[in-house]
Design goal:
There is one protein chain. The protein is mainly α. It has helices at about 10-15, 30, 45-50, 55-60, 65, 70-75, 85-100, 105-110, 110-130, 135-140, 150-180, 190-205, 205-210, 230-250, 260-285, 300-320, 330-345, 355-370. It starts with 7 loop residues before the first helix and ends with a helix.
């Protein structure tokens, strides 16, 4: 028996969707959506679940994550119910629900809390970074006043708790999805077929590209490299490339100081990709070029801003290494770059960034039953 919670609509408003209750279920949003299918009739189905307070239906729905927020449904809604932003609000709600500590709820619901938490975390990470270089002049001065072991242990505890929270969040989502999405055996794809579909999707964003092909779409006449799917693709692969380059740097510390080392080349190419995507994404939000970019939340700005600053400071350090430059400015830049990069990793499970693990899991269930 399904349990309804008629107060649920008020909860969703706190995650950024104010107007969805004006929907009268005409189905226009589903009709214009390029990604909806016979058994995945979002956004209308999701709006209906929200109005009735069917939280379990929402949390166990892979369709929630099949939406790429193109905004066509919002552009054409006759009631200005803003179904695109409603879907985004539901994803924020789901991320907060899956994450066990409650921090994500506070981050999404309270901008002041998000800002204060970010500042405090930056300060702690900065101190933790100096514990990794205890012979540095600044580190020696800091640890005259602060206990070294407490700062180091606090940093380690934060990283460990973040990892645990991420694993629990992913398990919670898996539990909800696996409980509902059980295809018949004759419709179930093998694990290798699913992985082939996933590799194709994340390699090409084939489903996402469908969002730009409608005749009346704002993006239909624009070159492919400025379309939202391409921006998303460059940010994702740029970040993953930088993560791989950082791992190589860690393994091969001495060779990585040379500009020609493969990790440096990979980092440069990946950094250019990420900076390109983050710059355009920020510009689109600043100019509000479409409805989907017109109502960005603080979480959107912070995530993209952090990526952009991390990329910029990374290139600054590349140039400093190439010219063997050693200055106070470069040391400060290194501190900013490292703290922001660590903060991006730490906030992975507590921010919009979490969709990077939740969407692939939803797509796994989607491709399991798709021929």
């Amino acid at each position: 028996m399904k349990t309804m919670d008629l107060s649920f609509s008020e909860e969703i408003k706190r995650y950024g969707s104010e107007d969805f209750y004006t929907c009268y279920s005409c189905g226009n949003c589903t009709a214009v959506c390029s990604l909806t299918e016979k058994n995945a009739n979002f956004p209308r189905m999701m709006i209906r679940h929200g109005m009735l307070g069917l939280k379990d239906e929402i949390l166990s729905s892979k369709e929630l994550w099949l939406c790429y927020a193109c905004g066509d449904c919002t552009e054409t809604c006759p009631r200005q119910a803003d179904p695109g932003h409603y879907m985004a609000a539901l994803r924020r709600y789901a991320i907060a629900y899956y994450e066990p500590t409650g921090l994500t709820r506070l981050i999404f619901k309270s901008n002041p809390f998000a800002i204060v938490l970010t500042i405090i975390l930056s300060f702690i990470l900065g101190l933790f970074l100096f514990t990794l270089k205890p012979d540095h002049e600044v580190a020696r001065w800091i640890f005259k006043w602060l206990p070294f072991d407490v700062v180091h242990d606090m940093g380690m505890v934060i990283f460990i708790l973040t990892g645990i929270s991420m694993v629990i969040g992913l398990f919670n989502m898996f539990r909800h999805l696996s409980g509902k999405n059980q295809p018949a055996k004759e419709r179930r794809n093998s694990f290798f077929q699913i992985m082939r579909h996933l590799a194709d999707e994340f390699g090409t964003f084939r489903r996402y590209q469908k969002c730009d092909r409608e005749e009346e779409s704002f993006w239909q006449t624009k070159p492919w490299y400025v379309r939202p799917w391409a921006i998303h693709w460059t940010i994702m692969w740029g970040f993953l490339g930088l993560l791989a380059a950082t791992t190589l740097d860690f393994i091969f510390k001495d060779p990585a100081m040379k500009i020609w080392w493969p990790s440096r080349i990979l980092g440069t190419v990946a950094g250019l990709l990420m900076m390109y995507g983050a710059t355009l994404a920020l510009w689109y939000r600043f100019k509000r070029i479409t409805k989907s970019y017109s109502e960005s939340h603080l979480a959107d700005w912070m995530f993209l801003g952090f990526l952009w600053v991390a990329g910029l400071t990374g290139f600054w350090l590349e140039i400093a290494v190439a010219f063997d430059s050693d200055s106070v400015v470069n040391h400060v830049t290194f501190l900013i770059h490292t703290v922001i990069s660590m903060e991006l990793v730490l906030l992975f499970a507590f921010s919009k960034f979490a969709h990077a693990i939740y969407r692939p899991l939803a797509l796994f269930f989607y491709f399991r039953e798709k021929g």
